[in-house]
User: Fold this.
Amino acid sequence: MAASPLPRLSGAYDGAPQRSGLRPGIVHLGLGNFHRAHQAVYTRAALDAAGGDWGIVGVGSRSASVPDAMHAQSMLYTVVEISPQGESFSIPGTHTDAFTAAAEPERVAATIGAAETRIVSLTVTENGYYYSPRTGHLAVDDPAIQRDLTDAARPTTPIGQIVRGLQSRARAHGESITVLSCDNLAENGRHTERLVKEFAGLLPAAEAAETLAFIERHVTFPSTMVDRIVPATTEHYRRLVAERCGYRDEVPVPAEPFTMWVLEDRFAAGRPEWEAGGAVFSDEVSRYEELKVRLLNGTHSLIAYLGALTGAATIPESVRQPQVEAAARAVLRDEYRPSVTAPRGVDLDAYEEELFTRWRNTALGHRTSQVGSDGSLKLRQRIPVPALAALDSGRTPHFLALTAAAYLACLAPLPGFDPGPHAAAMVDPARTVLARQAELSSSSAELARRVLGEQHLLGEELAGRDEFIARTGELLDVIRRHGALAAAAQAG
Ligand code: CS2
Assistant:
């Protein structure tokens, strides 16, 4: 931002919350926008409503921009709630410290190991768990995991950092702790527990035994369902904050008004009264997660890929195209919905309508390239279970196949097909492998066979379902020849 006469956001600002009594009870891995507009906001609401001294130490992975800016702003930043009716601004002010793992690798495990830390939470995206989407197990051959297994002092993967932190607790004081995954993964608590234990089990025998015994006795891994659409920060939001709040904030976070957090109440060493801040503690978290990961995230993926292929930069631009909305409704209602059981008190028709209202929030500017990124990991969470359920009951899930086809059109374009700039902007760890498969394929059918059948992009079970693979290939061919809107119209 150009030099501005405005003062920088600081604790002296009138609207800044009181932070002096906070203690660092939570260490959070993944200091991205989502955490800062979700858990941090719930924590502030809980502190305001019910008191307590829970503060958060935010750990970024590589980039120092957010921690540095927070330090320059008394650890504060602004959440900008964006709706078509206007904006509102708030300052959660729940962080007591922030740093970057890449710059201070030894500090991560030490902070998790500190006796006053009672929760280590994570929003590291699907990609941050270092697991094989094929098997669901730890990616033991990944060089980063191998390095973390040998270099105890400077772990770089979140799972390595957590295990090293737990080891330090076991040795130094033996205090219990909760590991809280807040990522969009089915059964995220169970998933994290499995990976943590697998990593611990690969340590030298005596260390492994000691660590696993500590985990059994002193660590819990509740599952959670998190929900709030949080786009990337742009210059627009910095300017808006400057104009409306009268201070400079380098790292404001835009977010939609809707927010939801459902958690299992299995905390080994206490927790903030998040329910007083609007969170829901429930014994039906896995139902909420399935609902969210399929109806919201799964449909979101289809809207993102069809949107990118039709030149739509944002989700609202995409979903306002009638063929895209019709395809989104079809996949949600006919293919995702039969695979979920509504949690008590949730009305699925109302849930669906609310999703479309949220996706139409034009003011938010949520980009198709952001939702379309990391599809090789995200789609594995979203498509296989409902697709297999449909196939097993004799139905072809045409719109799930369309989701896979639109993804391939974006990430593995066959020679002569240009998916456009929004697809090119999608980041995906499988991009190189997919590009290679596209080079080797002489038809859409062959590409679908290679990626889904041989590479198991959507898991082993779907890899054996020829009907699904053939339908994906057909729809990919329609996209290539007649465009994404034609494929959306013809899919059903
Ligand atoms: C989106 C999610 O990027 C994606 O895949 O579907 O980030 C979505 O916006 C959030 O999960 C909403 O809670």
User: Anything to note?
Assistant: Residues 184, 227-229, 297, 300, 370-371, 378 surround D-mannonic acid (CB under 6 Å). Residues 24-281 form a domain with the Rossmann fold fold (CATH 3.40.50.720).
